[in-house]
Design a protein that fits this description.
The complex is a heterodimer of chains A (286) and B (269). By secondary structure, chain A is mainly alpha-helical. Chain A is built from twelve helices and no strands. Chain A has one domain: ABC transporter involved in vitamin B12 uptake, BtuC (Orthogonal Bundle), CATH 1.10.3470.10. Chain B is an all-alpha fold and 269 residues long. Helices cover 80% and strands 0% of the residues of chain B. The radius of gyration of chain B is 19 Å and the shape is globular. The chains are: A mainly alpha (286), B mainly alpha (269).
Chain lengths: 286, 269
């Protein structure tokens, strides 16, 4: 029963991340996720100070709000300071993350929001807040949140897929063609922070990054259009999380770590496949 | 006392080499190297059953070299952009570390106590032997800086000219990344692997607005690093539970914002 619930949690969170990953990869904002997911820590501690529990829905809402504000701040700073993007990311995530660590030590060291849990996440703890449905006993509260998020993401994609397509390739052209493309961008960051906060508790800071980038990056190697990229990335997310869970359970090792490591290996494998075998076929065709 | 001296020395050397990282537009390379050090530390603990600094250095050099070569291999494909590759490699190595850590937890949990210090640093956990090691390598890299400085300035501002003028560019690049790896590994217990890249990048970002030539930049950035180290050590010695690394990075960040404010005022005047 616990196994089914864990697999469902992983599947839902990786699907959610796979839905936002093509836009991220096409916009070349992969390290931006790293920056947000690190610098969200002070916001989480602050919302913990206000709400005083980790499990309530209100805590998630506050954390999402803080992370959204952090994302907007970072975006603003990218535009205003004339320093290369990488240096700004390096500066801000270390600065905000260290503020978060100091805040954890000062205010919240006695609960299980210690600084190590933030880095690794706890898949196993989600099992305990079960919903107690009679016919679906493996369902818990985290599943419900992730499912709502996934449905919202699907609707968002269904409505704005064309705008997203233009926007992720060429922001200036999209800004010229559609009227309110800026608000779509803000909506994207809101969704991003929503998904990040939800999967942050499960997977930890660094491994969220792998799940948010790898599906679309591998899909980009093989896909021929935008919709195919979404399809492939979702398929890859489902497959990789299933395979990694199987391996992790058979060797009794950490699930999230296995997924991240296998993502890297699979990217290298896919790259070898693409550059050495598939490129030649194309040349023969033309 | 000697610990704090070596911490300050390390911050100085990191600031000096970090200038080149920023100017080569590789601000996050220290971050990638730092994350790939994490599995190396655990492998060394697993294989040797001890927390010896020498084996940690050896394995972390191997792992950083591996991550760096994977980065360079994947960069050749045009479809993959640099940011995403960096994210995948960084999190992949961190995932390997997490995976190995769960193995370590299962087999020998008595060795686990010191391992969690490597994320945020724990100055009090450094033994005197490790301290000698850190001091020796920081001094060595400071000594090497004196010779490498000229070549690195050429290579980071105009790499084409550098390749044209000197035919030792490969060796210089190799030594540069070699030293970066060693510096990142030295920071395991001093500031922690997560926050190391702050010590490399931020001093340069603080000081490059105020300097007219490279010597001024070097002086300003190293003095910024030393000053913020001083503040961090001062605060952390008053509050025992707070690790020193985050405090140093916070003081560096505050210095950065202060430098921005000063700049705005001068422009207005």
């Amino acid at each position: 029963m616990i196994l089914i619930s864990l697999i469902l949690t992983l599947l839902l969170s990786s699907l959610c991340l796979a839905f936002i990953s093509p836009t991220l990869v096409l916009k070349k904002e992969a390290m931006f996720v790293d920056a947000i997911s690190h610098s969200v820590l002070p916001g989480i501690v602050l919302s913990f100070i206000i709400i005083r529990t980790l499990d309530s829905f209100l805590f998630d809402l506050f954390a999402v709000l803080f992370s959204f504000l952090t994302a907007l701040l970072l975006k603003r700073i990218f535009n205003s300071l004339k320093i290369s993007k990488e240096s700004i990311i390096g500066l801000f995530y270390t600065f905000l993350f260290s503020i978060g660590v100091v805040m954890v030590v000062f205010f919240a060291n006695d609960v299980h929001l210690d600084a190590d849990a933030v880095l690794f996440g706890q898949v196993e703890y989600t099992v305990f807040d079960s919903l107690n449905f009679q016919f679906l006993p493996f369902l818990n509260f985290t599943h419900l949140k992730l499912l709502v998020c996934l449905i919202m993401l699907f609707i968002w994609f269904k409505f704005f897929s064309r705008k997203l397509y233009y926007e992720s390739f060429d922001f200036n052209f999209a800004n010229f063609k559609f009227k309110n493309i800026k608000y779509l961008n803000y909506l994207f960051y809101l969704f991003l922070s929503f998904v990040l906060i939800l999967s942050f508790k499960i997977l930890g800071v660094v491994l969220v990054l792998s799940l948010a980038v790898a599906p679309a990056l591998i899909a980009k190697l093989f896909a021929r259009n935008f919709d195919q990229m979404y399809l492939y990335s979702c398929l890859y997310a489902v497959l990789s999380s299933l395979i990694a869970t199987y391996i992790a359970f058979s060797f009794d090792i950490s699930i999230a770590g296995t997924i991240a490591f296998f993502n890297m290996l699979f990217l290298i494998f896919a790259n070898v496949l693409k550059t050495n075998f598939m490129h030649k076929n194309k040349r023969r065709d033309t | 006392m000697l610990i704090y001296f070596s911490l300050t020395l390390f911050a100085l050397v990191a600031a000096l080499y970090g200038n080149f990282c920023v100017f080569q537009k590789q601000g996050l390379i220290a971050d990638v190297l730092g994350h790939s050090v994490f599995p190396a530390v655990i492998v060394s603990v697993l294989l040797t059953n001890s927390k010896s600094y020498f084996y940690m250095m050896l394995f972390s050099f191997i792992f950083s070299f591996l991550s760096f070569s994977i980065l360079n291999y994947l960069k050749k494909n045009i479809l993959l952009d640099k940011d995403s590759i960096m994210a995948i490699v960084l999190s992949g190595f961190f995932g390997l570390g997490t995976l190995l850590m769960s193995v370590l937890k299962k087999n020998s949990s008595n060795l686990l106590s010191g391992v969690s210090d490597i994320f945020y640093g724990n100055v009090s956990a450094i033994s005197s032997g490790d301290l000698r090691f850190i001091l020796f390598f920081s001094l060595l890299s400071l000594f090497l800086y004196y010779f490498l400085r000229r070549y690195l300035i050429f290579s980071s501002f105009d790499s084409t000219f550098f390749r044209f003028k000197f035919n030792i560019f490969r060796i210089v690049d190799f030594i540069f990344y070699f030293i970066l790896t060693f510096l990142v590994t030295l920071s395991i217990n001093l500031v922690g692997i997560v926050l190391t890249s702050g010590l490399f990048i931020i001093p340069c970002l603080v000081s490059y607005k105020f300097s007219n030539n490279y010597t001024q930049l070097e002086l300003l950035s190293s003095s910024t690093a030393v000053f913020s180290c001083f503040i961090g050590i001062l605060i952390s010695s008053n509050f025992n539970s707070v690790p020193t690394g985050p405090l140093i990075v916070i003081s560096l960040g505050i210095l950065f914002f202060a430098s921005r404010l000063i700049n705005i005022n001068t422009v207005k005047l």
